[in-house]
Write a structure and sequence with these properties.
single chain; 533 residues; six-stranded parallel sheet; 20 helices; 19 strands; globular; binds adenosine-5'-triphosphate; DEAD/DEAH_box_helicase_dom; nucleotide-binding; ATP-dependent DNA helicase
C-alpha cells in the first residue's frame, strides 16, 4: 500500500474490506464519496494472482482510474466500446495467454494484467469478451469481480441503469468468483434489491455467520466539511434568480459550484439569469448537449473559465473536481438518495463547502406528478419532502436515519462508526437556528379542512390544482371561495363550518355548497413547524 499507492494508513473500514477480499468473500461496501473505495479492491488486486475485473459506468471514470494505476506502475487496462481495435486485440491476447497459464504462476514474466476495467454494456453485449472471462475463470485466473456504483442495478435507486440489471448473469456465469459491490448511497430497499439482483451469497444456515455469505461494510456517510441548509424559495421565478445570485455573490463570489435544476429548460434559464444578473460565468450541462459541448464544459470548468455549472442530474458520475465549494439545488430532488449524492459533489477535497436547497411547496406538486409512474416514487419523494420541511432536526441525523440499514439481511455487517455518529453536527441550518426562529403550531384544523375540500372535489369528479385548494382554503371567511364560522360541534369538538364554492373550479358540475368539519378531542391530523424566516 505504501510502496505502490503512497498511502500510509488505512482509513474507515478499508482494512476490513481488503481482508475480506483476500478471503474471497462476496462484499458490499457503502462508503461516502471520496472515502477511498478504490484502494479496497486495487490493493487486493495487486496482492492476489489473476485479474480483477472492475465494472464501472463511465468511460471517463475508467480512464481516470487507469491513468492513476499506470502512473503507480500497476498493470491496468480497459476494454470499452471506444478502445481502439489494435489495443483490444492486444489486451485480448494477453488475457488469453493468462487463461492458458492456469494456477498461481505468472503468464509472461510478471506482466499479468492485474486490473481489467469495462463498462456494463461490454458484459451485456460482447459474447467474445464474456467467453474470454469464462476461460480465465475456468483457469482460476479471474480473482474477483468488482461492481462500482452498484446501486445502479436497482430500479428502486435514483440512478437505475438497465445494463446494470443484466449483471445478474455474473453469478450464473462465474459461480465461484467473489463479487464486490461498491456504492456511496444505498438505502435499505436498494441494498435488499442489490443483493437479490446480483445474487450475492447468503449466510449458510447452521454455519458460522462470520465465515459464510456476504460481508457488508458501511462507514458513516457524514462528511463534516459539508454544511447543509434549506432556504425558503420565492414563489416567483424572477425572485428566485435574484435570491440565488445574491447568495452566490455573498458566499462564493469566486468559487466553483453546481446548480442542479429539474429540467433542461431550467438549466438554460438559470444559467442565463445568473450570467446577466450577477455576471457569473456559467455553463450548461444536460443530456441534449453534444459530447463536444460536454467535454468543453468540463475543460472550461476545470480551468476556471466557467465557475458555475447549471445542470440536470445527467451531470454526475465522473465529476473529479475536488474544489467544488457549493452545490445549490434549484428544486428538490426526486429522492433523498439523489439529493445526498448530488449535493455530495461539493467539497471532495475535504475543505468547507455549502450544500443549499431552495425549497417551496409548489415544487412538491411538480415533482409528485413527475414521479407518479416511478416505482415507489411517492415514498421516495416524501422522504425528500420531510427533509426539506424539517426545520428542527440536525441534517446529519436525518441522513443517518434515512440511510441506516436494518440488517435482517443474511449478511455479516461491519460498520465503522464512533460514539459521535449520532450526535448533532452543530453546523447545519437546523443546528444553528435559534429556537425563536420558529414556532410549533397545531394545524389539525387546517389539514382537516384541506382534506375535506380535496375529498369533496374528488367525489364530485372535480379536478382541483394545489394552488386552487390553497386558494379555497385561504378564502375561508372571505367572499370568494367560501365562509367559515367557528363554534361547538355536537360531540363537543371545535366546529368549523366552511362554505366552499367549488363550482368555478370544477366546471360548474359540483353540487357542494356547505361542508361541516368537526374536530373531536384527540383528532390530531397535522402539525407544522412554521419558520418565521
Ligand atoms: N487511507 C487513505 N489515506 C489517505 N488517502 C487515501 C486513503 N484512501 C484513499 N485515499 C485517497 O482519497 C481519495 C479518494 O479515494 P477514492 O477515489 O478511492 O474515493 P471513492 O470512495 O472511490 O470516491 P467516489 O465515490 O467519489 O468515487 C484518493 O485521492 C485516494 O488516493
Amino acid at each position: 500500500m505504501r510502496k505502490i499507492f503512497n498511502i500510509k494508513d488505512f482509513r474507515l473500514c478499508q482494512r476490513g474490506v481488503c481482508n475480506s477480499n483476500m478471503d474471497g468473500r462476496d462484499i458490499v461496501v457503502v462508503m461516502p464519496t471520496g472515502g477511498g473505495k478504490s484502494l479496497t479492491y486495487q490493493l487486493p488486486a495487486v496482492l492476489t494472482p489473476g485479474v480483477t475485473l472492475v465494472i464501472s459506468p463511465l468511460i471517463s471514470l475508467i480512464s481516470d482510474q487507469i491513468m492513476h494505476l499506470q502512473d503507480a506502475g500497476v498493470e491496468a487496462v480497459k476494454l470499452t466500446g471506444s478502445t481502439p481495435k489494435g489495443e483490444q486485440d492486444s489486451i485480448n491476447a494477453r488475457l488469453g495467454s493468462m487463461a492458458n497459464t492456469s494456477g498461481r504462476g505468472s503468464s509472461n514474466g510478471g506482466k499479468d494484467i492485474k486490473l481489467l476495467y469495462c463498462t456494463p454494456e461490454k458484459i451485456a453485449k460482447s459474447k467474445r469478451f464474456v467467453s474470454l472471462l469464462q476461460k480465465l475463470s475456468d483457469a482460476d485466473r479471474l480473482a474477483r469481480i468488482v461492481i462500482d456504483e452498484a446501486h445502479c442495478v436497482s430500479q428502486l435507486g435514483h440512478d437505475f441503469r438497465p445494463d446494470y440489471q443484466k449483471l445478474h448473469v455474473l453469478r450464473q456465469l462465474f459461480p465461484n468468483v467473489p463479487i464486490m459491490a461498491l456504492s456511496a448511497t444505498c438505502p435499505p430497499l436498494v441494498l435488499q434489491d442489490l443483493l437479490k439482483v446480483l445474487r450475492l451469497k447468503a449466510t449458510v444456515p447452521g454455519e458460522d455467520a462470520d465465515r459464510t455469505g456476504t460481508v457488508y461494510f458501511t462507514a458513516p456517510l457524514y462528511r463534516p466539511n459539508l454544511h447543509y441548509q434549506v432556504l425558503p424559495k420565492a414563489s416567483e421565478g424572477t425572485k428566485v434568480y435574484a435570491q440565488m445570485v445574491a447568495w452566490i455573490l455573498r458566499e462564493h463570489a469566486d468559487d466553483s459550484g453546481i446548480v442542479y435544476c429539474l429540467s433542461k429548460k431550467d438549466t438554460e434559464k438559470v444559467a442565463a439569469e445568473l450570467a446577466t444578473r450577477g455576471k457569473i460565468r456559467t455553463g450548461v450541462y444536460h443530456a441534449d448537449r453534444s459530447d463536444r459541448e460536454k467535454d468543453k464544459l468540463h475543460r472550461d470548468w476545470h480551468r476556471g473559465d466557467v465557475k458555475v455549472v447549471c445542470a440536470t442530474i445527467a451531470f454526475g458520475l465522473g465529476i473529479d473536481k475536488g474544489d467544488v465549494r457549493f452545490v445549490i439545488h434549484h428544486s428538490i430532488s426526486k429522492s433523498l438518495d439523489g439529493f445526498y449524492q448530488e449535493s455530495g459533489r461539493a467539497g471532495r477535497d475535504g475543505k468547507d463547502s455549502d450544500c443549499v436547497l431552495f425549497y417551496r411547496a409548489q415544487d412538491a406538486s411538480t415533482l409528485s406528478s413527475m414521479t407518479m409512474g416511478d416505482k415507489d416514487g411517492g415514498v421516495k419523494l416524501n422522504a425528500m419532502l420531510e427533509f426539506a420541511q424539517n426545520l428542527t432536526e440536525c441534517r446529519k441525523i436525518q441522513f443517518a436515519n434515512y440511510f441506516s440499514h436494518t440488517t435482517n439481511l443474511s449478511m455479516t455487517s461491519w460498520s465503522t462508526s464512533d460514539a459521535s455518529a449520532r450526535a448533532p453536527c452543530g453546523h447545519c441550518d437546523n443546528c444553528t437556528r435559534t429556537s425563536e426562529a420558529y414556532v410549533d403550531k397545531d394545524v389539525t384544523l387546517e389539514a382537516w379542512q384541506l382534506l375535506r375540500i380535496i375529498e369533496k372535489a374528488q367525489k364530485t369528479g372535480g379536478n382541483v390544482t394545489l394552488a386552487k385548494v390553497a386558494e379555497l382554503a385561504r378564502s375561508s371567511g372571505k367572499a370568494i371561495g367560501g365562509t367559515a364560522r367557528k363554534g361547538k360541534g355536537k360531540h363537543g369538538g371545535a366546529k368549523e363550518q366552511v362554505t366552499v364554492d367549488l363550482d368555478a373550479v370544477c366546471g360548474g358540475k359540483v353540487n357542494l355548497k356547505k361542508e361541516e368539519i368537526e374536530i373531536l378531542p384527540g383528532d390530531r391530523i397535522g402539525m407544522a413547524v412554521v419558520s418565521s424566516e
